[in-house]
């Protein structure tokens, strides 16, 4: 599974791919648009630099989840894994239509809502992938429109980015675990879509698949109204943790087709 890196090319696992450009950069990885030099196919390659055994273990967990979801059409498929020393390259399909978050952002200025049929199709696709993930004993922990990639012809979406996954159920059994879970939530769970229990991680509580169900609700809201029900709170710098305790106060815009 080793590879050699020459010029702008990544070679390994029977593949030789050329880096075209950077698509996105996060705190822990970079996504690159690449092209296979053998057949011209384009891929999205997730580059992850690791600096500890814990970080390597997290990459391996992400790869494990990809394998568990290999038969799930609405989950992004891992094409190949290439490793160069402490750097891992996850070769993934490239979705030229991008992600749902960017699509919603482009639509918002003109108040161009997603057709209801797409709202339903996208939501069902994500729920199918999440259902399998939960059945395998994992929570995604970062469900949001940016992690829903639009399929060709807008015929559906696939769920991506399994770097945030964790095993469930998980009991917060000590003060140490309480702090670890708080840190993990801050690191992996986008605040406007984060479940209330992940803001507190109370000692003695049990973290379950319910955290993803909360996020799915926020995602469904975003599909209808362009953003999470807590985005406005976040943008104002107010406490989402407090706002999430009062879901009855969520505003539902009336100007929706």
From TrEMBL:
The keyword ATP-binding applies. GO terms for molecular function: ATP binding; protein serine/threonine kinase activity. SUPFAM superfamilies: Protein kinase-like (PK-like) (SSF56112). Residues 17-257 form the Protein kinase domain. It catalyses: L-threonyl-[protein] + ATP = O-phospho-L-threonyl-[protein] + ADP + H(+); L-seryl-[protein] + ATP = O-phospho-L-seryl-[protein] + ADP + H(+). InterPro entries: Kinase-like_dom_sf (IPR011009), Prot_kinase_dom (IPR000719), Ser/Thr-specific_kinases (IPR052239), Ser/Thr_kinase_AS (IPR008271). PROSITE patterns: PROTEIN_KINASE_DOM, PROTEIN_KINASE_ST. Its EC number is 2.7.11.1. Keywords: ATP-binding, Kinase, Nucleotide-binding, Serine/threonine-protein kinase, Transferase. GO terms for cellular component: Golgi apparatus. This is non-specific serine/threonine protein kinase.
